[in-house]
Amino acid sequence: MTPENGQLNKLVIIAKFFQFNQLKTNFRTESVAGITTFVTMAYILVVNPDILSKAIFLQSSGDLFGELVIATAISAALATLIMGIYGNYPFALAPGMGLNAYFAFSVVLKLGISWQIALAAVLIEGLIFICLTISKIRNQIVNAIPECIKQATTVGIGLFIAYIALINTKIIVYDETTTTTLGNLNQPETLVAIAGIIITSGFIARRITGSLLWGILATALLSWILGISPLPQGIASFPQLPTHLFGQAFIGLESIIKMALLE
């Protein structure tokens, strides 16, 4: 068998497994779609660790950022592979933008709950959702929720994330009288953030593939040129394995059990 025939046989096997003929698609179309989806979602690899690193740390905020990047990538890769291979659906899965902010800012930082215990709560929540899904109860719950509430929830999460972003970029700041007020728009960091919003919005309006990622890169480039952010120390590096994160949910679960027994 020639290498060309072997490659062709592999493509045929893939086509049969994913039912390309029935779905009227092909390997090239699905490959391009997969790359496009990755480029569109790649910002999560930075945004999710940035949010979580404010609550998940050992000595100081951000010291586990590298490990959180790898943990985000691994979780997204495994979930997407399971969805594609087991579920046979072309859906990419990754940590949700909104729940991570709630985890970091509301549960850990505001309520003062340790991030290990919070992770244990997420683990328990996941197990409950698996049980609800297997028992078909989840479908009944979702179908019982009015469509307007579903849409409002999505919009609310988006506004919550946008609010956090506006605070981090100092476009809006805390005010004792009105709680929130307009910040100093003359600050370089704020001007770059505003420029980034405009650039990204333009990319989205022009329907450019990977508009969010290109917007992030354009904003970062502008920040580097103006000297607001330090230049990266390298293009690539060996991944920082999440050794400090592994098993922390079980440690938190142990703490929960101990607290329950003491009560």
From TrEMBL:
Its subcellular locations are: Endomembrane system
The record's family statement is: Belongs to the nucleobase:cation symporter-2 (NCS2) (TC 2.A.40) family. Azg-like subfamily.
Question: Molecular function (GO) terms listed?
Answer: purine nucleobase transmembrane transporter activity
> What is the membrane topology noted in the UniProt record heading this document?
Multi-pass membrane protein
What is the scientific name of the source organism? Okeania hirsuta
Q: Which UniProt keywords apply?
A: Membrane, Transmembrane, Transmembrane helix, Transport
The reply on keyword Transport is yes
Spell out the Pfam families in the cross-references.
Xan_ur_permease
Q: What is this protein called?
A: NCS2 family permease
Query: Which lineage?
Result: Bacteria, Bacillati, Cyanobacteriota, Cyanophyceae, Oscillatoriophycideae
PANTHER family xrefs: XANTHINE/URACIL PERMEASE C887.17-RELATED, XANTHINE_URACIL PERMEASE C887.17-RELATED
Gene Ontology cellular component? endomembrane system; plasma membrane
